[in-house]
Amino acid sequence: MSSSISIEPMKQDHIPGLVKIENACFSRPWTHDGFAAELDSSTANFYVALSDGVPVGYIGFQAVLDEGYVDNIAVLPEYRRRGIAKKLMETAFERCAVLGLSFLSLEVRKSNAAAIALYESYQFKTEGIRKNFYSAPREDALMMTARYR
């Protein structure tokens, strides 16, 4: 697993790999149809991290007017701690700049210290709590936002 990682916009043929990532990372994973619908959405911005052409991570966010909302960011467990999530975040921020967004917002499990540390390293600040936002297991979410202006 020493291959280089490339990032590219999501395409139809990435979707089966993204479903595998979802199933490995989340208790309530997105489906094939959920990803496919994003391909037709004018607000969706999804980017895939590829290792030798195989999806190993992704980030997806919605851009509405000048606001950005992260749907998900995920990296296969065996590919974590290699800078892939950082590459995905940087790609998202570059796209946010192109789109002229004023902020990017997301929710994260209150117990997910690794993700929170990643987001804080990109100047995300906690701006609220969504009670019982997650299920399986039930947990509060921190609402975090990175502001650009």
Structure description:
The protein is α+β, with helices and mostly antiparallel strands. The chain has one domain: Aminopeptidase, CATH 3.40.630. Helix content is 30%, strand content 40%. The chain contains four helices and seven strands, in the order E-H-H-E-E-E-H-E-H-E-E. The chain has helices at 15-25, 32-39, 84-99, 113-121, and strands spanning 5-9, 44-51, 54-64, 67-75, 103-109, 125-134, 139-147. A seven-stranded mixed beta sheet has the order 1-2-3-4-5-7-6, with helices on both faces. Strand 2 (44-51) and strand 3 (54-64) form a beta hairpin.
Count of DSSP strands: 7
Order of helices and strands: EHHEEEHEHEE
The CATH class is Alpha Beta
Radius of gyration: 15 Å
- Considering DSSP H and I runs of 4 or more, what fraction of the residues is helical? 25-40%
From the 3D structure, determine the CATH topology.
Answer: Aminopeptidase
Structural class: alpha+beta
Count of helical segments? 4
How many distinct folded domains? 1
Helix and strand topology:
Layout lengths: L4 E5 L5 H11 L6 H8 L4 E8 L2 E11 L2 E9 L8 H16 L3 E7 L3 H9 L3 E10 L4 E9 L2
Parallel strand pairs: 4-5
Antiparallel strand pairs: 1-2, 2-3, 3-4, 5-7, 6-7
Notable characteristics:
alpha+beta, single chain, globular
Briefly, what is this?
About 30% of the residues lie in helices and about 40% in strands. With about 150 residues, the protein is α+β, with helices and mostly antiparallel strands. It has a 7-stranded mixed beta sheet, with helices on both faces.
